[in-house]
Design the sequence.
C-alpha cells in the first residue's frame, strides 16, 4: 500500500470527524502547526519513530508537547505512533488541507512565474482558472522560476495549464525540427 494511500485514509477519517464536530478550520490549523514543528525539529520525528522508547512514552511526549492542540489532532498523532506511521504526518496534513479546501469550494494551486505575483494578479488567476476546474476560488502558492522566461504555469491537482514562453518555444522547435 502506498504511503499516500495510507495518509489519505487517515486524512479522510480525521476530516469526517472534524466535519461532525464542525472544527475543520481549527484542525487544519493545528495540523499545519504540527508539520511546522516537525519540519523545524526533525529530532522530534526521529524520537517518535525510534523503537528505543515505548509507545506509551511517545504518546506521553506528544501529549505534553501538543497540549494546546485540538484533542482529535493529538489522538490522531497518537494513533499514528501506535501504528508506526508517524512519518505520514506531513502527507496526512496535506491530504486534510485538500479535503478542507474542496469542501469549501476551494482548491490549492501552484503558479510558476518569473517574478512574484501581485495580489490582483493572484485574484485574476484564481477566478479564471478556478472556473476551469469547477472551484469557486484557488489558494495560490507562487513559485518563482526564471527558466520559464515569461508567462505562467498553473498546477491545480493533476491539471497543468502551461502558458509560458519556454513551453511555446519548445512547441515551435518541435514544429520546425519535426
Sequence:
Amino acid at each position: 500500500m502506498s504511503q499516500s494511500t495510507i495518509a489519505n485514509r487517515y486524512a479522510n477519517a480525521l476530516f469526517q470527524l472534524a466535519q461532525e464536530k464542525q472544527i475543520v478550520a481549527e484542525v487544519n490549523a493545528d495540523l499545519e502547526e504540527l508539520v511546522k514543528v516537525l519540519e523545524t525539529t526533525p529530532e522530534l520525528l526521529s524520537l517518535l519513530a525510534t523503537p528505543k522508547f515505548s509507545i506509551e512514552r511517545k504518546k506521553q511526549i506528544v501529549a505534553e508537547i501538543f497540549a494546546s492542540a485540538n484533542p482529535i489532532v493529538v489522538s490522531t498523532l497518537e494513533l499514528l505512533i501506535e501504528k508506526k506511521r508517524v512519518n505520514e504526518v506531513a502527507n496526512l496534513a496535506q491530504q486534510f488541507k485538500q479535503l478542507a479546501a474542496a469542501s469549501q469550494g476551494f482548491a490549492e494551486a501552484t503558479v510558476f512565474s518569473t517574478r512574484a505575483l501581485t495580489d490582483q494578479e493572484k485574484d485574476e488567476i484564481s477566478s479564471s482558472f478556478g472556473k476551469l476546474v469547477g472551484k469557486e476560488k484557488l489558494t495560490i502558492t507562487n513559485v518563482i522560476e526564471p527558466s520559464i522566461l515569461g508567462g505562467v504555469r498553473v498546477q491545480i491537482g493533476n491539471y497543468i495549464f502551461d502558458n509560458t514562453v519556454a513551453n511555446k518555444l519548445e512547441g515551435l522547435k518541435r514544429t520546425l525540427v519535426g
Remarks:
- The chain has eight helices and four strands.
